[in-house]
């Protein structure tokens, strides 16, 4: 089971802060400039909820790195502590929800590879922020619950359609 420390949440929140500053000053507060970041953050939240398989392992490794980097910053940078801040009850993805995650992975890969106007950095940092915040007990972590429910519902509709 994946756990997120305060360090991991700090890294995810730091990415949100830096993205917000960039959006405010460099992107001139254009809503369209935030869309790739927000969509990939939602994808990251769904990805960390899929605990098994290759994609789940990649998300777990990313969370481990995020926890480690944030723990280093908190412990050695400012002398703080890094308690476990994982939400007590996790939302599980159904088989249909996992199918939605695979389809979203393919869509993000396509954007990364062929959509020249979509900044790849926004896709990558958004996914890392979503992975870092998706299991937390904070507002961002709680947002993963309806997101997972929507993915499960979409997956149910997808399996009924096919």
How would you describe this structure to a colleague?
This protein is mostly helical and 162 residues long. It contains six helices and no strands. It has helices at 6-25, 31-49, 53-78, 95-114, 120-133, 139-161.
Salient structural properties:
mainly alpha; 6 helices
Which SSEs are present, and which pair or pack?
Elements: H1 6-25, H2 31-49, H3 53-78, H4 95-114, H5 120-133, H6 139-161
Q: What is the chains' assembly state? A: single chain
Rounded to the nearest angstrom, the distance between the terminal CA atoms is 32 Å
Major β-sheet, in short? Answer: none
Report the uncertain regions: none
- Label the structural class: mainly alpha
Write down the Rg: 16 Å
Strand content: under 5%
Shape: globular
Strands, count: 0
Number of helices: 6
Q: Whole-number average pLDDT?
A: 93
Order of helices and strands: HHHHHH
Helix content: over 70%
In summary, what is this structure?
It contains 6 helices and no strands. The chain has 162 residues and is mainly α.
């Amino acid at each position: 089971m994946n756990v997120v420390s305060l360090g991991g949440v700090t890294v995810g929140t730091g990415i949100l802060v830096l993205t917000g500053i960039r959006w405010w000053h460099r992107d001139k507060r254009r809503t369209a400039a935030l869309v790739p970041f927000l969509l990939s953050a939602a994808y990251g939240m769904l990805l960390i909820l899929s605990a098994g398989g290759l994609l789940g392992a990649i998300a777990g490794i990313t969370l481990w790195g995020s926890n480690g980097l944030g723990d280093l910053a908190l412990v050695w940078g400012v002398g703080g502590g890094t308690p476990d801040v994982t939400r007590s009850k996790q939302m599980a993805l159904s088989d249909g929800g996992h199918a939605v995650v695979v389809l979203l992975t393919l869509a993000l890969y396509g954007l990364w590879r062929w959509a020249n106007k979509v900044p790849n950095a926004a896709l990558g940092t958004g996914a890392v922020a979503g992975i870092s915040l998706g299991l937390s007990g904070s507002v961002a972590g709680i947002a993963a619950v309806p997101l997972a429910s929507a993915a499960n519902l979409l997956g149910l509709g997808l399996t009924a359609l096919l």
